[in-house]
Amino acid sequence: MREESIKYYSPIIGRDFEMLIFGESGIPVIAFPTSMGRHYQNRDFKLIESVAPFVESGFIKIYCPDSIDEQSWYNTHIHPADRVRNHLLYDQMILEEVVSRAQKETSHNKVITAGCSFGGYQAINFAFRHPEVVAHTFSMGGAFDIKMHLDGYYDDNVYFNNPPDYLPDLDNEHLFQMGIVLGVGEHDFCIAQNKRLSEIMTKKGMAHWLDIRPGANHDWPVWREMFPAYIEALQTAKV
Length: 239
Hints:
The chain is an alpha/beta fold. The protein has helices at 41-44, 47-50, 52-56, 80-106, 118-129, 156-159, 163-166, 191-204, 220-235; strands spanning 3-10, 15-22, 27-32, 60-65, 111-116, 134-140, 179-185, 209-213. It has one domain (3-235): 3-Layer(aba) Sandwich (Rossmann fold). The protein has 9 helices and 8 strands.
């Protein structure tokens, strides 16, 4: 499996940015890391290995970007408003630098977003904010209410990055064309948030798959089973 490491200075986030890319061709998958995770996390925890056959066959090409969570959601040393503003720069960088690169390299207009735990939030939030460039989104063990990281602070930027708040008001035709999977274990502490987001989508008439795994918890072995199952379902046009 071809692995490429890139590093460059991103003018949008004002710092060096690193990313791993796996494969040579196929549908581009943007795979976000978990909380404050690095670009190599999904590789090191063998999430990439779990979908290796799909990468090697040229069905998908995976882009694993760094997070900047330590500057945004998890930076308790700055004002909550600044945490959100830093995330907005990250969102812009993913759109203008990562997605645009993936589009050019694969000749696909739309990408898949995916992620485990906090990466599930990133995948869902980016997809719902930019449905015109996201064909499918796979969250594995995600939690979607970002307000827990903001010490009670709330403004428009928080609203537009908190899917349970803004999703009911969205009216974008691309949302209703998107393949959406919420994967969560039966014993995952995030299960209530997945059920809540599923209820919101059901009320809006948004097709999706709430995949509750019996007996499963919030951990990598579960996600390593989910990810290839979702890619296989995509390959057989079941999502």
